[in-house]
Amino acid sequence: MSARRRLRAVGALVRRAPAPAMLAASCVGWAALMWSTASEAAAHAAHSRQSALLMHAMNGMDAAAETAAAPHAFAVWPAMILAMAPLLLMREVGRLWRGSLRRTRMPTIGVFLTGYGMMWLALGIIVVPLSQVIAARAGLVWLAVAVTVVWQCSPLRQRAVNVCHRAPALRVFGSAAQWDAWRYGAITGGACAASCGPVMLLVLLAADYHLAAMVVATILLTAERYHPARRPRWRLPFTPEPSPEWLGARSSRSSRVVRGT
């Protein structure tokens, strides 16, 4: 599919229900994220003013600021999920919207989102404290960047991204429909958290540039999500897949070499 046709398909997807409601939810998440970032900046400014006035209490105040950083990060994590997840789940929620009975549509979507959100919240329990440990040492920050770059290029991550593209069979009636929706959300959320988690860790490590880093991460991860599934192999992100003709020519050259030897 060409880039133009893909953009048209995404545009049509955004105009159909429940996409407008999901975009509104994403706006709420971004508003909460901006408010949280602004409140943190105000708290840091107030702390700096107090430190200038009370130099003799500086050590105790720094310790208090460090202990307050982790709760703030735990509050930011759900806002990050709410800001980005609706953009990633347009197809999945739209499928549930159109494939569910009208009377069970909203409960089914709610169960799906619960399973999805649980995976991300579980990841946050690990990532948020880890970000506090890594941020304390510059060497660990650069190590986290290197590991994330390697992970972005790895075939294992591409397998996780491909899981996000799967559309399992979903039952429609009774508790079986709710169970299928929860499992669909949990599997999608687990694969999404595994593929995007390292990038979200870097967003937390961005400190003063946290909001800008979140914008960049959201754009890149959303663009990747709407690319077709690809064969798992080592590659740079967003590099094009080799054409079938090129693969066929390569395999024929290899067979001629084997026959020649």
From TrEMBL:
Transmembrane spans: 69-89, 109-128, 209-226
Signal peptide positions (record): 1-31
Superkingdom of origin organism: Bacteria
InterPro entries, alphabetized: PpoB2-like
This protein's record includes keyword Transmembrane: yes
Annotated keywords: Membrane, Signal, Transmembrane, Transmembrane helix
Protein name per Swiss-Prot or TrEMBL: DUF2182 domain-containing protein
Source species: Microbacterium deminutum
